[in-house]
Amino acid sequence: MAIDGLLLRQLRNEIAAYLPAKLLKIQQISDTELLFTIRTNYENKKLIISLHSVYNRINFTKENYTTMEVPSNFLMLLRKQIDGSIIHSIEQIGLDRILHMVLEARDELGDIHTKHIYIELMGKYANFIIVNEDGYIIDALKRIPPYENSKRTILLGVKFELPLQQIKQDPYQLIDLNMNESFTKQFHGFSPLLSKEVQYRIHNGERFDDIMDQIATSKRLYICDVKDQIYFHCIPLTHLETHIREYPLMHGMDILFFEKEEKVRIKQQSQDLFRCVKRELNKNKSKLPKLHQSLTSALDCDKYREYGDLLFAYMNQIERVNSITLPSFETGKNITIPIDMRFDIKGNANRWYQKYHKSKRAQSVLLEQIEICEKEISYFETMELQLTQADVQDAIEIREELVKQGYLKAQKSKIRKNKKRDLPHFDTFNFDNYTIYVGKNNLQNDYVTWKLAKKNDTWFHTKDLHGAHVVVTLDNPDEEAIRNAAMLAAWYSNGRYSSSVPVNYCLQKQLKKIPGNKGSLVSLSTYKTIYIDPEIETIQNLIDQHRQLQKK
Question: pTM for the complete prediction?
Answer without folding.
Answer: 0.71
